[in-house]
Amino acid sequence: MSTAHTSEETIKHDKTNVSIDITAKCGRNIQGKKGDNLVSFLQVSIEEINLGESEKKHANPMKHTIDYDFTCTYNSPNDAQAFSDILQKPIIFTVVEVLHEGKKGELKTAVLGQAVVDLFPLLQGQCSFSSTVPLNPVVNPGIKESRQGMSRKQPTLEVFVSVTEPLLTEPELSTCIIMKVTVETAFSVPDTWTLPTGSAHSPFAYFAALEVPLTAENDQALMFSEGHLMPGGLREGKGRRKRRPLQSLLVPGNQFLPGSFCQPEPIDHEDGELTSLEDQAFRDEAEITKNRVRWDTEIRCFLDACAASRLKEKITDSRLWPVELMRTSIPLSRLGDENPEIPFHGLIFVDMGRLLYPGVSRIRGAYTVHPFYESELLNKVSNCHSSIACSTQTYIIYKTIYFHIYKTKRKASVLKEQAKIATVLAKSRASIQQSVPPPKPTTCDEASESASEPETKVNVEGNMYLEAKTYVIIEVSLNRPLVPKTSPEELARRVKALIPPKPKRPAGPTRAEKAVVDFHTQVGNAVAAVSEQFAEIFGANSKLQESLSKEQILAEVMGGLNVSGRYFAFKEQIKRAVVKIVRDKMQRSRPLTDPQEVKEFVSKLYVYLVDEMHVALNKIYSSDVAEDCTDEMKLESSQLRHFAKEAQLTSNYQQAAQYYQELVVRHPDEPLYKFEWGSLYMLIGDYMKAKECYYDAVSIQQTHQPSLMMCGVVAVMFERYNEAQTFLERATSLEPPSVEAWTLMDLYTYTDSRNLSERNKTFREDVYSFYMTMFTEMLQTTAQINYNEAHILKLATLRFTVQKFPLTDGLLHLSLNEAFLPERAFLEAKKIFGEEEANRANADDKTKLSEDNSEEAKAQQDEHETDNSALPHIAEHDPEFPDHDMEESREASLHIDKSWTSPTKLTSSIFTQTLKFLLQNNALQMAEHALSQELLGSKGGCSMAYYYSLAQFQLLKGDYSSAIDSVKEALFYKSQYPDAWALKGHCHYLQGTFTEARECYEWSMVFPEPPSDTHIVHLRLGAIYILEEKFIQAKEVFLQACEQSPSCLTWLGLGKACYRLGELCVAEEALAVATLLNSANAEVWAYLSLISLKSGQLQEGDEYYKNAISFDFQDSSLNEEISEAKRQTRMSKLASCFNASPQAEAETV
């Protein structure tokens, strides 16, 4: 605020006027009726004020120029109103040709053209600027010379504008605002608005008006007075040029603002109303077939620093700003004196609240027109509920609630005020001519008092807007945002202050070190080649080696190396290694020309290579070098990650942590593994360790978006809301934009508001209950309200609650500006979500178009065969279905045929998409808030996505019975959803009802599209088959799992099934693979012990059993089975010994 006061004081300095020098230098390509003998002069004016007239100048026929060199001065008051006039009123240059000059000085002239210059650069800090502007002809049927006097080449006028000092200082430029308001087109106007037969122009005038702040105390009215009724039949063209105000003073070519165009955008990207899918069809029809009123006019206005602050305050108080609309056949000044009647008086509410979003400086959208009632505008509805009850349109409800919340203190009708002012000015002019004192103008206070009287007259003409569903396209833009957006660099700095990045790891070996290592490797290869050749010659004939001398052996080996080609091979390899040594180690890249230098370098190189050769040979033959003799299979990182997720799903959290630890050790610079490790700790409830993992992931990579989001979620759990906002804002600033990040920002603010009373003891406890009660009453009264509007209403109610119950100590974290944060986050998430849905739909359409007809027919035939074969398969495996599941199964089978070929898609929203992220990372507290928001937004009852997410949430909470009930509700909506069947199976499995679990798992595998967690389905289904002694089915399931996603548990399951089937060799092979994947699984060693004992290998069985015991083997039933197998093996060996003794005695005898 101090800056604003300083700027206001600065703008009111000693100078009361500003002198603007305007110089018309030269005109080019101007031709008149007299041809090369053109004589002309310039008239300079602004609006109706004449600034001067130049001398008569002759044209230069050779250069086609006219040197006017005419300078005039425009003295403007140094205040905000004058600056607004500068923005709205251009300097007008009129070129007049002198056709004849009489003896008495009488001139016969013709207007050749008109040029305009905007003074806008002066309000951008410039002291001077030059401009070459086109000179456009005057289109007037009464002046035939006008068109003939212009040459085919575009005539121009060079103008120079200057001031002695800048109109605005640097502090003023940084605090003042230039607002641009554009009223484009009114669509779907009342049916009575038609053009007269045979005429292209309407006899009526069409006005739009609104008020915006000018200074800290005064407002300025913006009048759009030159609307044109246009017939329907074609859609409005794209890229239409915006027009200036006061078009009546300008020729047609000068009515357009240079570089300003109406830029249409997709309906779902607009900021106004009528953006839903249901409204698009109506708008398409209205914008093509129906009549419309076109303004396409942009008015620029200046707001000083105090006015900018006042604009922000007024939007905060009431985000809905009225724009008035009317149609009249008489001038504005003749509408009336005291209380003029405005024909077709309509009211538009422009939602300016989005201008308080950080970084937002432009809004554009369609806004519906309502009948104007001053009592509604002034009194803002004394009883909200009665007004809501008598209204049937949702958007009227929407506006009325806002009125009840904000209770704005506004003046009476802007159009009536302007009509009164126009009437007073007209009478003033008449009184001056007749010397009659002018009437006393009505003050704003008097107008407000008179207008505050209750109205009884119904606005019949205004109601036509409702019947026609009229709406107007309006755009408001600012040269800078009201609320600056925090830059990504600043957000990165804040995150860096909370989580310092880890120091960079030392770089790998240099090129010189790599060259030396490569040389050592090639020396080793050469040694290996020589050893192989020596073994081929002397390996089988040791006598030959003894009979030859060392020189002869060397000759034999060299000859063999040359004949076999080994010598040439390792010589070329060593040559390349030596080149790298020379280039990278000795830094020699240019050839040597001096023979002495060559000799010295070769000598030095030889010594170095011999030394390095000895180093390499010592490495090969030294006894100090330990060889890696381990035969253990090295697992890939993808396998370790798969095993970690498997261990997490099977509740083996310690082993999952070991896998993640190994991944982190292998990849210390990869944040993904730290992030997933943190999700494991979230599952087991160790939130401090989870926080450490997420912080470590961010310290590794400061832009890792999922880790930043989870850091924000954990910060909310620990009630560190400032940190949470920093993390989430940083996540939203990263590319690509994330639905989850923006939705979490919305949920964070919701959570923050619920914890206000806990964080501030002075906050009254009835605030939140009042907020919820008020919003609940609104929703009950507005049952048909749109979901987006309902969510925004909730946030608006929250803002009202914060205003109604202020904190005495000012420590409330949720400030008024921050109250707009959840709304912005919600709308950004919806926008990104819509774009992603559209991209997915386009991709699906392209995929469908690319499919061949024959392939589609074949797929349908295969699916039909699968349908006929799969369903009896289930009945055969499970003849005894419970009654309630049989009903669900029959119901599911009825739906399978209808949607068999269509891919399974779950209709989602921003909250269900965010729920998926939260549940995957076990953030149950925030997931609960997301569920409540999804429930609030469910139109016509709870959705399938809500019930499915709720079941997942309840499963993670351990409430299996409630989860089963929820997933049943989900299956009622979409019985052919495989993930829901799998989820139901998980609930039954964890509850211990294995028969129901098996049935659900089997149903999930029937559909063409398998469930997303097929691996855990295979594991649990196979385990159930083994429990039920259906070993053939278990073998099939585990074999499929080993093919799709092999792990120790899949191979263990296959080994168990094969063992029970008596296929001991296959079982042993499967268990051997399982030990390679995880040598610490006690059950694997136990089954290997069983197989060895069954094969009569007692010693190996004992060794395997000892391994199982060392890994904490605790399966009592399997332990008894091993003991029984040992006993039987020993007994069989004893029996064989006793049988062998009598046979030996008989042979001896």
TrEMBL record:
<dbReference type="InterPro" id="IPR052628">
    <property type="entry name" value="CFAP70"/>
</dbReference>
<feature type="region of interest" description="Disordered">
    <location>
        <begin position="432"/>
        <end position="456"/>
    </location>
</feature>
<dbReference type="InterPro" id="IPR011990">
    <property type="entry name" value="TPR-like_helical_dom_sf"/>
</dbReference>
<protein>
    <recommendedName>
        <fullName>Cilia and flagella associated protein 70</fullName>
    </recommendedName>
</protein>
<keyword id="KW-0802">TPR repeat</keyword>
<dbReference type="Pfam" id="PF13181">
    <property type="entry name" value="TPR_8"/>
</dbReference>
<feature type="region of interest" description="Disordered">
    <location>
        <begin position="838"/>
        <end position="894"/>
    </location>
</feature>
<dbReference type="GO" id="GO:0060271">
    <property type="term" value="P:cilium assembly"/>
</dbReference>
<keyword id="KW-0677">Repeat</keyword>
<feature type="compositionally biased region" description="Basic and acidic residues">
    <location>
        <begin position="874"/>
        <end position="894"/>
    </location>
</feature>
<dbReference type="Pfam" id="PF13432">
    <property type="entry name" value="TPR_16"/>
</dbReference>
<dbReference type="InterPro" id="IPR019734">
    <property type="entry name" value="TPR_rpt"/>
</dbReference>
<dbReference type="GO" id="GO:0070062">
    <property type="term" value="C:extracellular exosome"/>
</dbReference>
<feature type="compositionally biased region" description="Basic and acidic residues">
    <location>
        <begin position="838"/>
        <end position="867"/>
    </location>
</feature>
<dbReference type="GO" id="GO:0031514">
    <property type="term" value="C:motile cilium"/>
</dbReference>
<dbReference type="GO" id="GO:0003341">
    <property type="term" value="P:cilium movement"/>
</dbReference>
